[in-house]
Amino acid sequence: MTNKGLLVHTALGLYCPKADVYLDPWKPVKKAILSHGHADHARWGSSSYLCTPTAAPVIKYRLGEINLETLPFGEEKLINGVSFSFHPAGHILGSAQIKVSYKGEIVVFSGDYKTANDGFSEAFEPVKCHTFITESTFGLPVYHWQDQKWVFNEMEEWCKNNRNNGQLSILYGYSLGKAQRILQGLPESVGPIFTHSTIEAVLNVMRNQGVSLKNTIPVNEHLTRADLLSGVIIAPPAVQNSNWLKKFEPIRNGVVSGWMALRGARRRRNADKGFVLSDHADWEGLNEAISLTGAENIFVTHGYTDILSKWLIDKGLNAHPLETNFEGDEVL
What we know:
This protein is 24% helix and 25% strand. The longest helix is centred in the middle third of the chain and has 17 residues, at 148-164. It has helices spanning 56-63, 148-164, 178-185, 197-208, 225-229, 243-246, 263-268, 283-293, 305-314, and strands at residues 8-10, 13-16, 21-23, 31-33, 48-51, 68-70, 76-79, 82-88, 96-102, 105-109, 131-136, 168-172, 193-195, 217-218, 232-235, 251-256, 273-275, 297-303, 318-321. It folds into two domains: 8-142 and 280-321, Metallo-beta-lactamase, Chain A (4-Layer Sandwich); 148-275, Rossmann fold (3-Layer(aba) Sandwich). The strands form three sheets. Strands 7-8-9-10-11-18-19 form a seven-stranded mixed sheet, with helices on one face. Strands 1-2-3-4-5-6 form a six-stranded mixed sheet, with no helix packed on it. A six-stranded parallel sheet has the order 14-13-15-12-16-17.
């Protein structure tokens, strides 16, 4: 895949033959280096894992008893003469770009990333390289994110209007990443923040590792509807339209995702309100990140790979789509 074969594309994922390690492998391998803890990047069954210290607790919580080593951002680890280092990706807490260096060649695997600083995750840092492997989850010009302060103001007004109308506000976000961002971004005026058990579990893992998070109240049978109406519930997308929600009716469903930029996606998700907030880079962010690397070779993974690749080729770059099994954490 790369000019000198530093990384190759295999049925198990991106592989570094010289070091005998895989980056975010799709199946169990001997040595796995992980960019972050989302399920399509961190899979169970490998003999050993390497990740950042801030990503480690959630990865352990999700994968169980695993052989896990950590490497702080910016520090190098040599494996058979190949240098590996982690650099902030800005996607979620602990997420990293993986820099691979050997005999003057530098390849950066981005994992998932966003260039806008959300004030919670470690902010994205561009890394100079010869080859950049970029995601393209939202790799179309139609995807352009508003400043998150504007989005949270919109959430605040929506929650207040729902309460005044006797309707309970429920915001849906992925339990790792989006839920923490919603929690930290909502203003105090929305009232107490209640959480579904799967989200509360991840929050507790982070609290136990010393991460400062706002207070939350787990939803339980002792809470009345009047209690819940005083605030807002954060829940994972999987519970939307479930029996768990029926006892809370009447409710209003607010889906928090980059896909909410498209009206059709809002309809498919039965969203009363769509809030456009993504933990992935938008079109401008993708182009900015690629430009800042100075890379001559670009490989484009998961998302609009063909479209973004053609765009980059038209700009004079050596770009290629790269098939992966990464699915993305934001589901339509």
